[in-house]
Specification:
By secondary structure, the protein is an alpha/beta fold. About 30% of the residues lie in helices and about 30% in strands. The strands form 2 sheets. The chain has a 6-stranded mixed sheet, sandwiched between helices. A 4-stranded antiparallel sheet has the order 2-1-4-5, with helices on one face. Strand 9 and strand 10 form a beta hairpin. It is globular and about 55 Å long. It starts with a strand and ends in a 5-residue tail after the last strand. Bound molecules: adenosine-5'-diphosphate (ADP) (2 copies).
């Protein structure tokens, strides 16, 4: 089943002499449960693509269809709700709320949506992430790897259609980075969580089912690494 389709995505910044084509006609589709990585040199358009897929930024033209909804057509309010329910975002620098503890950070987007706390879900996620004895702590009391675990918990709590991760290990030492990658892969495998991971680390990218190569805003190669059964 197709969970994401991108059609002829174009993103221009500026105009006239200063115009930059950050994305120049990108099209692809992703199946539910797939793990896709997006790799490319600095400035190739990776972050721009992720921001558009995440509904944080609008394209100049083109479509982004997530689970049947063209998110570029949604108004601000509907888009905000769609984002909190259907899109999980994991950033390089965690983006946690400094005044909220681990539990609160994980459940926050869900609570902002006016929904009740699913205590069992929260307990499952916290224990899965190995944060049981950290639940009352603030982000400033956690290591980088622990903070990234919290941000993964927050992204997964609402069972999003897609999990988008932008250089999630970019700020971590190698061993911690591998632990974080293992967690992301595990929810991809065990929970059939569709995962799109942006990286400039080829070793990391090659752990995906498919690798998309971006260059100058174009998808120049779409390589299947392994086929799922
Ligand atoms: P990557 O994530 O692969 O490093 P980006 O998506 O950040 O690439 O950038 C793609 C291109 O778009 C680059 O040339 C960058 O300078 C440009 N760009 C990105 N964001 C903006 C912006 N807000 N305003 C102007 N140009 C931008
Ligand atoms: P259900 O969807 O049936 O309510 P959950 O998604 O809450 O179940 O959890 C089912 C199992 O998956 C639990 O045993 C839990 O440990 C595990 N699990 C929960 N969250 C994650 C996660 N983010 N990544 C991987 N496994 C998880």
């Amino acid at each position: 089943m197709e969970i994401l389709r991108v059609e002829n995505l174009v993103k221009e910044y500026g105009d006239g002499d200063t115009k930059i084509m950050a994305l120049d006609g990108v099209s692809f589709s992703v199946e539910k449960g797939e793990f896709v990585s997006v790799i490319g040199p600095s400035g190739s358009g990776k972050s721009t693509l992720l921001h558009i897929l995440g509904g944080v930024d609008k394209p100049t033209s083109g479509k982004v269809i997530i689970d049947g909804t063209d998110i570029c057509e949604l108004g601000e309010d509907k888009l905000a709700v769609f984002r909190r329910r259907q899109i999980g975002l994991v950033y390089q620098f965690y983006n946690l709320m400094p005044v909220l503890n681990v539990d609160e950070n994980i459940a926050l987007p869900h609570l902002l949506d006016g929904r009740k706390l699913d205590k069992e879900r929260l307990d499952n996620i916290v224990s899965h992430l190995g944060l049981e004895d950290r639940r009352e702590n603030l982000p400033s009391q956690l290591s980088g790897g622990q903070q990234q675990r919290v941000s993964i918990g927050r992204a997964l709590y609402s069972r999003p259609a897609i999990l988008l991760a932008d250089e999630p290990t970019g700020n971590l030492d190698r061993k911690t980075g591998e632990e974080i990658t293992a967690l992301l892969k595990e929810s991809n495998r065990m929970q059939k969580q569709t995962l799109i991971l942006i990286t400039h680390d080829e070793r990391l990218a090659m752990q995906a089912d498919r690798v998309f190569y971006l260059e100058d805003g174009k998808l120049i190669k779409n390589e299947t690494v392994r086929t799922r059964r």
